[in-house]
Design brief:
The chain is α+β, with helices and mostly antiparallel strands and about 750 residues long. The chain has 17 helices and 30 strands. Strand 25 and strand 26 form a beta hairpin. It is globular and about 85 Å long. It starts with about 20 loop residues before the first helix and ends in a 7-residue tail after the last helix. The structure holds dioxothiomolybdenum(VI) ion. Dioxothiomolybdenum(VI) ion binds next to loops.
Length: about 750
């Protein structure tokens, strides 16, 4: 795997490829993940899940379970503490409107119906296997989103209009010279972070502490407080390290409450670790999408109308819209548009956000449709993208704060060698293999939320930055250290960053690619306040070598406060801390989105170029080359940013070629609930990935000019691969994943 980074050299730590400051702790095992919580001999809880899709529990026979040595308690609807059903909102982000273990109704295969608590994990698991739950089956379950009669058209998802209409889409489509009417589908997909979801819960003196693998300590705290009727100060949520999250740890799921209940009932700390199998039904998944796109265009590929109808599935106990049409509403110049999103209520587990929810499947469908349009018009696919570029967000009518998508196309085309591409399908070959090149657009919104960070200069000159934000493996520890180090003129290793604790100053969910843009400006604000106070103290304290120097003539450089004109005249931070009242200087920095009506639309962009090779005789398809060029504002750390993009593109390869959660058509049980049957890309599936950044700071978005980078990497990849597959083979696969049999038996629609 190679990666090219061409960028201006920088003299600050921010912008430099600094190694992860938490890297050593992670690779040496010193970093405490939730399951490593330092709690002496916790009890272990193992969850028992429903094995029917719809119906109710008639009886539970606990005798064999309770006979297992070590089993302490069996928690069911008969004895579980009461917890309320919470509506989903961002104050109390409970994913499902189904409080666990509160009744006998079963709404999907995999619903938690009991938990066995024992002194060892093995005893709890044995007890769980021996629990006899007798069910009454309800009506035959509904499992097919395309045939369901129980369909809703939601108004909104996360504040975005779900039903959009502009201009005269039907007429414009009908009267267009070129018309496409194509339907794409993407399957259910599951998050597979290395670290499964974990909760370790402990009650002490009426207070609840949980070590939880969560992307949102504050949201988790709010749910626990509400469910157990506690003031928030009596709930403590700790999550300093996560082994990935990708959305399945963003909102709260039932196992968290079950662990807290188990600890309450037994009066002992309880550890609950979901198994890999349980991860497939317990913490959400990406909804399948069925997307009909009608595209009307002029003969040169200029878009006149797009009608985009999205169908998702939804469980009966939660609502999550996979907003695949959002991209269409925003990304290109489309004068006439109609977008619908519908949800089919099925007897299946609940879906949730997964890396680039909406954009990942949306960019697949739109990105392929524009490639189909290019072939219908006999135009270079990249020219169709350029021709329909817009400067005003069609959805909001606002200008983009900073959009350098054309530069992404240009730099990508040059670096990839796009001009050598011959247009006709099956026209490029290398030995036994057909070669195909595809391109598509990447995009993800840039969001930010109010956030705080407390910066403290303390005894011995230590500097610490503290915020209730998270590092999912993203690099948050490192970029906070870089930014604060720059303010004080010290090395990033001198900054102690503490995050992932609900008692720390507030931060939003580590989701929606918003953490950097929310938390980093707050940390810099806090650091600058402390630095100002430090300079004031250093210039006003008799004993200080800087006594009497005007504050404006003091700078932080090379580890000390120094007189600008006479750098040898300097003060150590340890001395400043000694002079300070109470031995430290501390400030809580704040940042948040601008108040009032927005003037700009904030989005990131990118171009994904892909090469595939297909050996027809072996039906072997490989992604031999991928190049992503991204416009995400200023890049704080090209090393961790590159890593995000490599991960996103790798997942895009999985989405395009491998990943599919398969359910048993009789009862909806997930049959691919393990990493042998659910295929994620491994090294052999990933050949060469290159990443480039168009580094244009977005200063209209926040003072640091940064936009989020966590999710955009996956967007557009599946489309670029699908388009490359068409170019290589002449076969247009419109339903993911593109497995070999679809190419063996697919109908060639090569011209
Ligand atoms: Mo992300 S899917 O918002 O964790």
């Amino acid at each position: 795997m190679t990666t090219t980074i061409e960028r201006p050299r920088t003299t600050t730590h921010a912008g430099s490829p600094v190694d992860r400051v938490d890297g050593r702790a992670k690779v040496t095992g010193a970093a405490p993940y939730a399951a490593d919580a330092a709690i002496e001999s916790p009890l272990h809880a193992v969850i028992v899940q429903a094995t029917i899709a719809r119906g109710r529990i008639l009886s539970i026979d606990e005798r064999a379970t309770r006979d297992v040595p070590g089993v302490v308690e069996v928690l069911t609807h008969a004895n579980a503490p009461h917890v309320p059903t919470l509506p989903f909102d961002f104050a109390t982000p409970m994913s499902e409107q189904l409080a666990p273990l509160q009744g006998t109704d079963v709404h999907y295969d995999g619903q938690h119906v009991a938990a066995v608590i024992a002194t060892t994990f093995e005893a709890a698991r044995e007890g769980a296997l021996l629990l006899k739950v007798v069910y009454e089956h309800g009506h035959p379950p509904e499992l097919d989103a395309t045939r369901s009669l129980d369909v809703e058209y939601p108004q909104q998802y996360f504040g975005t209009e779900a039903q959009v209409r502009r201009g005269e889409p039907d007429q414009a489509f009908e009267s267009s010279d070129v018309q496409l009417d194509v339907t794409y589908s993407t399957p259910n997909e599951n998050h597979n972070p290395l670290e499964p979801s974990v909760t370790v819960a402990q009650w002490r003196d009426g207070e609840l502490t949980v070590y939880d693998s969560t992307q949102w300590v504050r949201g988790t705290r709010a749910v626990l407080a509400k469910c157990f009727d506690l003031p928030e100060e009596k709930v403590h949520v700790i999550a300093p390290f996560l082994g990935g999250g990708f959305g399945c740890k963003g909102f709260v799921w039932a196992h968290l409450l079950i662990a807290a209940m188990a600890a309450k009932v037994t009066g002992k700390p309880v550890k609950l670790v979901l198994t890999r199998e349980q991860m497939f039904t317990s913490v959400g998944h990406r909804s399948q999408t069925h997307q009909r796109l009608r595209v009307g265009a002029a003969r040169d590929g200029t878009l006149r109308a797009v009608l985009h109808d999205v169908r998702n599935e939804s469980s009966r106990v939660s609502t999550f819209v996979e907003g695949a049409g959002g991209v269409t509403a925003m990304l290109f110049e489309i004068p006439n548009i109609a977008i619908t999103h519908s949800l089919a209520r099925l007897d299946v587990p609940s879906s949730t956000a997964m890396r680039a929810p909406g954009e990942a499947p949306g960019t697949f469908a739109l990105g392929c449709a524009l490639d189909e349009l290019a072939y219908a018009c006999n135009v270079d696919p990249l020219d169709v993208l350029r021709r329909n570029h817009n400067a005003i967000d069609g959805e909001t009518g606002l200008p983009f704060s900073s959009k350098h998508l054309l530069a992404c196309y240009e730099r990508g085309a040059e670096a990839f060698g796009w001009s050598d591409r011959t247009r006709a399908p099956r026209s490029m070959r290398d030995g036994d293999e057909l070669v195909g090149w595809g391109v598509a657009t990447a995009t993800y919104p840039a969001m930010r939320m109010p956030a705080e960070a407390r910066v403290t200069l303390g005894a011995g000159g230590t500097i610490e930055a503290v915020s209730a934000t998270h590092d999912l493996g993203t690099g948050m520890y490192t970029i906070l250290a870089q930014l604060v180090a720059d303010v004080f003129g010290v090395e990033p290793s001198a900054i102690s960053v503490r995050i992932g604790d609900s008692a720390f100053p507030t931060a939003p969910v580590a989701g929606g690619s918003m953490s950097s843009a929310s938390v980093c400006p707050a940390a810099v604000d806090g650091a600058q306040r402390v630095l100002r106070d430090a300079i004031a103290l250093a210039t006003s304290t008799d004993a200080s070598p800087l006594y009497g120097v005007p504050e404006a003539d003091v700078e932080a450089r090379d580890g000390m406060l120094r007189a600008r004109n006479d750098p040898a005249r300097a003060v150590a931070y340890a001395d400043v801390a000694r002079w300070a009242n109470g031995g430290e200087l501390s400030a809580t920095g704040k940042s948040g989105p601008e108040e009032g009506e927005p003037k700009y639309s904030f989005h990131s962009f990118g171009a994904q170029f892909v090469e595939v090779r297909f050996d027809e005789e072996l039906a072997r398809l490989r992604v031999s080359r991928a190049l992503g060029v991204f416009d995400c504002g200023r890049i704080l750390n090209p090393k961790t940013a590159r890593s995000q993009m490599l991960g996103g593109i790798t997942w895009g390869i999985g989405m395009a070629l491998l990943e599919e959660t398969v359910r048993d058509p009789r009862n909806g049980a997930v049959v691919t609930n393990n990493l042998a049957d659910y295929h994620v890309p491994v090294n052999a599936d990933v050949q060469s990935i290159d990443v480039l950044f168009v580094e244009e700071p977005d200063l209209r978005f926040n003072p640091l000019g940064i936009r989020g980078i966590g999710e955009i990497g996956i967007t557009g990849v599946a489309a670029a691969i699908g388009n490359a597959v068409y170019h290589a083979t002449g076969i247009r696969v419109r339903d993911l994943p593109i497995v070999p049999e679809k190419l063996l038996f697919g109908e060639s629609n090569a011209a």
